[in-house]
Amino acid sequence: MDCKIDYQAPADLLKGRNILVTGAGSGIGRAAALSYARHGATVILLGRTTAKLEKVYDEIEAAGGPQPAIFPLNFEGAVLKDFHDMAETLDKEFGRLDGLLHNAGLLGRITPFEQYNPELWEQVMQVNINGPIWMTQALLPLLKYSADSSVIFTSSSVGRVGRAYWGAYSVSKFATEGFVEVLADELEHLGNIRVNSLNPGATRTQMRKTAYPAEDVSTLRTPEDIMPTYLWLMGPDSRGHNGGKFDAQPAKA
Ligand SMILES: NC(=O)c1ccc[n+]([C@@H]2O[C@H](COP(=O)([O-])OP(=O)(O)OC[C@H]3O[C@@H](n4cnc5c(N)ncnc54)[C@H](OP(=O)(O)O)[C@@H]3O)[C@@H](O)[C@H]2O)c1
């Protein structure tokens, strides 16, 4: 499991690329959107809270980045038609997609399985895996138009080794890693689309704080610290890597 934390991205790494980031309004997704824009990408900011997306939009504009776009979407309740409508809009606006970072995620509850609420379980599976899968299906034609497109699914250490009480979150991340293997193998012959999974590792965000409320956050890397791997995997330097499992930071000793 490869980690590129020391990667130095050229300033124009993503110049001319259209990249969609889900969950772009906060946490790791916000940092990725800002970082991709800083490296030249036109970023499509997708998320459920428009006000947060607008703030990121303003930050990109203030920094002189390429004009981004906002696409409000709540994975809960989103159906296939929503993803196809979205693909149609993006096709009209941009004509192709060169990158897709599936980052939006829901923790659910950390609780014994016997007490896990089935509705919450479904919600977590919808946001973390089912929604992203159908969104990917709808966007595949746009990704195929690109000469070099990168699809990144966000995993977690509990998507590689199961952990007690992590319930639907852990299962959704296992499913994510499995889906990446299936899709990567299926698209391998095309040569212009790569699909990989990326585990950010313990990162200072709201989700991490909810999962570990007593943790000293000063010991954690920030979303900005882990961006080198996000840039490497999105940009052309990772060409040829397909179906891989990557880490954005070295595992804690
Ligand atoms: N932080 C860590 O230590 C860590 C470790 C391993 C994996 N991860 C993974 O990294 C990714 C980002 O996590 P984070 O730590 O940055 O979490 P976060 O701060 O909680 O951000 C999650 C993002 O997902 C969006 N989101 C949640 N539900 C959504 C829905 N129904 N529809 C659309 N967007 C939705 C949120 O939107 P709002 O802002 O509008 O709520 C937010 O932008 C997740 O996939 C997570 O599983 C994080």
Short description:
With 253 residues, the protein is α/β, with parallel strands linked by helices.
Verbal overview:
With about 250 residues, the chain is of the alpha/beta class. Helix content is about 40%, strand content about 15%. It has helices at about 25-40, 50-60, 80-95, 120-145, 165-185, 205-210, 225-235; strands at about 1-5, 20, 40-45, 70, 100, 150-155, 195-200, 245. It has an 8-stranded parallel sheet, with helices on both faces. The longest helix is centred in the middle third of the chain and has 27 residues, at about 120-145. The model has no long low-confidence stretch (mean pLDDT about 95). NADP nicotinamide-adenine-dinucleotide phosphate binds near residues 23, 205 and 208. NADP nicotinamide-adenine-dinucleotide phosphate (NAP) binds near residues 28 and 127.
CATH architecture: 3-Layer(aba) Sandwich
Radius of gyration: 17 Å
Cα distance, first to last residue?
A: 15 Å
Give the mean pLDDT: 97
- Number of helical stretches of at least 4 residues: 7
Determine the CATH topology: Rossmann fold
**Helix and strand element order:** EEHEHEHEHEHEHHE
Oligomer: single chain
What's the CATH class, please? Alpha Beta
Tell me the count of domains.
Answer: 1
In this entry the ligands are: NADP nicotinamide-adenine-dinucleotide phosphate
Principal-axes shape call: globular
* Helical amount: 40-55%
* Fourth-level CATH superfamily: NAD(P)-binding Rossmann-like Domain
